[in-house]
Amino acid sequence: MRAEHVERLKQALPWSPATFTIHFVALRRLLRWANNPLGGQHGIWAVPTQTSGRRRWLTPEQLIQLYQAARGRERTLVALEGFNGLRRVEVLRLRTKDIDFGRQLVHVLGKGRNGGKWRTLPMFSETERVLHSLSFGPDENAKLIPLSKSGADLLLRRAAHRAGFPALGVRVSHHDLRRTFGRIAHKAGMDLVQIKNLYGHNSLDQTVHYIGLDEDEMRVGLGRLATLLDPMLRTEPPLGDPRAKGGPASFRT
Known about the structure:
By secondary structure, this protein is mainly alpha-helical.
């Protein structure tokens, strides 16, 4: 393994900084064990700056493109995260008995060190349809997607490649899908309190920040400021006006 391979990993994988750190630590240990000098180098293992905490969302068209390109378990994963806003860990915890087709509900165990909190959510129509297409065995405790976190990452990566995202420069993570759900739901008219409850957030402020409404409001505010100031900025001061020299205008008392 060489430095160029690490750089390719940074460019190709849609991971958060924390995920990169976890996998890079394990990989460096393996390389040191194999007496590969790359394991002792520090600079090459720096977390890529383009994967900082910047929030990302897909457009509605990109979400549909990803979903339609997904196959099998990939489609189940995208539906639960992109159409119902579940976290990756919540998707991987789902069992057969957590799906209530009769009332179109899904019982979700949230994140948390002590197992998290349960919440009951209505299923989006397409989520219900794709779950209905699965074959359920007799074991009601069987996992819906019996994979590890890295296995789920691989599913999403395969779907993104099939959708042509890398060639388009589009990056997508599990949290991007979850954020996309809330942003599109809000634009479709869903109340923020409903989105908060679907997410399992503790506060509305968390939801507002999560789906980027704070950023949107700042942009709207700057747009209003531009409406006020732009006409003044476009007006050239007349010749002889002290403002034309760049200094403050003088006032007589």
